[in-house]
Amino acid sequence: MQRLYDLVRNEAMNTDKWLNDIKTKWEIWYTDDMDGKLVEKGLDDHRHLAVRLATLFPSLISEENLRAHRIRFITSSKHRCVDSIVAFQEGLLNLWKVTEVGPSHKINDELMRFFDNCQKFVEDVENNQTALEEVHLFKASAEMKNLVEATFFLCSYEFAIKSLNSPWCNLFDETDAQVLEYKNDLKQYWKRGYGHDINRKSSCTLFHDLFNRLDQAAHEIRFGHVSEAVTIQVGHAETLLPLLALMGFFRDETALTADNFDVQHGRTFRTSRIVPYAANLLFVLYDCSEGPAAVPPQRDTSELPRYKAPGSTLRYGQRDLQRAAARLQF
């Protein structure tokens, strides 16, 4: 990005207003050491998320459960994930003005970075030069010509982090933005989503852990002793996308390919909506007096609809969960 900025500032010659703004008013704030790190806006997002969830689920995410260590925290080893979970804990500590309980967490890459430990995924997708062929074809297509992706990132980062309408955004019209969005969706579709079957199956370790915890919670509630009321797990977009695909969410009837951009404007698989910054997926176990326990998955604090029946809520009874887990014994 620094090289792009230097190139535009020193060699671009036209008289457009956006170029004059970049040359005279805009200063680059992005540095190489920021790559992969969580900015202050991201820390605030997680602090606020903690408060929102505590408000939504006061009987689960409670001061009592925090003090009794019944809220467990698990994270990927990546520093941005560790920073995220510490910020989440800070949100709870500040909410209840707790000072004597310090933040603690457990690093578990086998769960939160399962894709690194799945040999078939590493061989068939991560290290396979042909696995993202559709992405490479699209990057060479007519739609992608003359588009500078780094410029788009400068535009989007400045808006997301600083809430500014960057002069870099003036280089693009709406169609350009749609093309670059599709290119990113295409990459995630083939590397983390439905493009290859192993993508979704690689998340089975996390899937089993999730429902084993729900089973344990249901068992403990039944016998009057709860050791773990809530588990907060922090990973990556690459953690969440395969899990959502494993459960069948956001699947389009037609696969995303390099040559069908024109017919994919209404696609369901749109990563800017599925995994935005601080994306979250919640599983809440309800004790229903009139039937079996129910688990409505919730994404970004809104209930996920069953994909084939828009508007309905995805609910599983305890036996349904056990059957689902049994089918995933690879």
Automatic annotation (TrEMBL):
Q: Which domain of life is it from?
A: Eukaryota
Q: Which CDD domains match?
A: HP_HAP_like
Q: Where along the sequence do coiled-coil regions lie?
A: none
Which keywords accompany this UniProt record? Hydrolase
Q: Name one Pfam family in it.
A: His_Phos_2
The yes or no answer to whether the keyword Hydrolase is present is: yes
Q: What is this protein called in UniProt?
A: Multiple inositol polyphosphate phosphatase 1
